[in-house]
Amino acid sequence: MARVACHHLIAPAVSLPWKNSSLFFSRNIAQTSHFQRRFSSSSSSSSKISMTLKAGIVGLPNVGKSTLFNAVVENGKAQAANFPFCTIEPNVGIVAVPDPRLHVLSALCNSQRAVPASIELVDIAGLVKGASQGEGLGNKFLSHIREVDSILQVVRCFEDNDVVHVNGKVDPKSDIDVINLELVFSDLDQIEKRMEKLKKGKPKDSQSNLKEEAEKSALERIQQALMDGKPARSVPLTDFEKDAVKHLCLLTVKPIVYVANVAESDLAAPEDNPHVKEVMNLASELQSGLVTISAQVESELTELPLEERTEYLESLGVDESGLGNLIRTTYGLLGLRTYFTSGEKETKAWTILAGMTAPQAAGVIHSDFEKGFIRAETVAYNDFVAAGSFAAAREKGLINSSLEVDLGFVLGLALDDLDLEGSMLVDGLPSRLMGFQA
Ligand SMILES: Nc1ncnc2c1ncn2[C@@H]1O[C@H](COP(=O)(O)OP(=O)(O)OP(=O)(O)O)[C@@H](O)[C@H]1O
Ligand SMILES: [Mg+2]
């Protein structure tokens, strides 16, 4: 099988180049950034997107993947119909990550526009038993999964005799097992081929030798786990080993969110549906996320005028659409965090990986900002909102300034909980992370 280029969220190499500050700061940061060029290729709306990750919608045929895709993606036009293998080529769409903080900041700063973070969704063809051996639409479709950063697995939990189930009955456990097994087989195949190659080849130098040794050792452990039916992500690896196996883009390394697709009538109390309960148990066993949604309802909602949507949801006993939850769960599961830049022109959410340093976070806006990083200023989101402006927060002494700056540096990355010595972002904090373009 031809190897596809996989899609990674790569943190730029760590450097602390605060003193090297001659390079930058004259460019308009709203223009194409490193990540814009890198992560959002052709769409014309991509100039507004900061860093986009890909989530792939997978599942058995005819379980509601395209219906969900069309509901989530504004103007989504994937063909969704009641027959298996309706989707053949993947459909791709961009979805905004809902974040109420964006609008609060935008109002406080009188911004002309608010630009949310976004996720790229890929609606992939249905997988069936034997896909790794070419069954159904076969290997080609596993290769589409290889290209995504995370997996949303739609699991059918609705009973409807008119909608064909490829295995004859609604059975979430068996559906999840079928998909997991295909992903496991595909990884095993990939590892076997790689091991053979590693055995034959000779490393160029001692550095490559070290890396290959780490790769071999990691692959052996992953292979064992896969043979025991466990995903590769369950195997503890050192950072060096993770890096050594990254190029294989193993499918079972990718985080999974299970999307329990329920009937309209189950939406108000999904946990009463035994199929949903089963998916809940499996998701927690497999250390994966779970979201309950009715793709059918979400798709009907998009057809309604805005004012009628709330009424419809109320009639079903729920107060909000499940899409926001789905997107936020996906975003959180990937260890992604947001910080904001805010000014009159725009308030914008930028995506970073948990654990990125302040210079790296600045580098998401523009790589020059990382190279010439000078200082970070810190303020908690709530403090900022209470103060009402950056100037007021400064006056009240709520902003901590780290290093001295005398170069007219205008990007004050304001990072709460920042370890100023090492400029490390602390995992898990960034709900309070803000940055400002003066
Ligand atoms: N929650 C639901 N309740 C009832 N019917 C649903 C629900 N979700 C989806 N369906 C119906 O299931 C059928 C299959 O949906 P869809 O085409 O989205 O499946 P798919 O997973 O994309 O299939 P394929 O793998 O063939 O592309 C459609 O008729 C759709 O209306
Ligand atoms: Mg489809």
TrEMBL record:
Entry GO terms, CC: cytoplasm
Localization annotation: Cytoplasm
Record-level Gene Ontology MF annotations: ATP binding; ATP hydrolysis activity; GTP binding; metal ion binding; ribosomal large subunit binding
Keyword NADP: no
Transmembrane segments: none
PROSITE patterns membership: G_OBG
Cofactor: Mg(2+)
Keywords: ATP-binding, Cytoplasm, Hydrolase, Magnesium, Metal-binding, Nucleotide-binding
Pfam families: MMR_HSR1 (PF01926), YchF-GTPase_C (PF06071)
Protein residues bound to ATP: 62-67, 262
Residues of the OBG-type G domain: 53-313
Gene3D superfamilies: 3.10.20.30, P-loop containing nucleotide triphosphate hydrolases (3.40.50.300), TGS-like domain (1.10.150.300)
Stored InterPro entries: ATPase_YchF/OLA1 (IPR004396), Beta-grasp_dom_sf (IPR012675), G_OBG (IPR031167), GTP-bd (IPR006073), P-loop_NTPase (IPR027417), TGS-like_dom_sf (IPR023192), YchF_C (IPR013029), YchF_N (IPR041706)
Summary of the function given for this chain in its UniProt record: Hydrolyzes ATP, and can also hydrolyze GTP with lower efficiency. Has lower affinity for GTP.
Assembly and interaction partners: Monomer.
Assigned protein family: Belongs to the TRAFAC class OBG-HflX-like GTPase superfamily. OBG GTPase family. YchF/OLA1 subfamily.
Protein name as catalogued: Obg-like ATPase 1
Organism: Camellia sinensis (Tea plant)
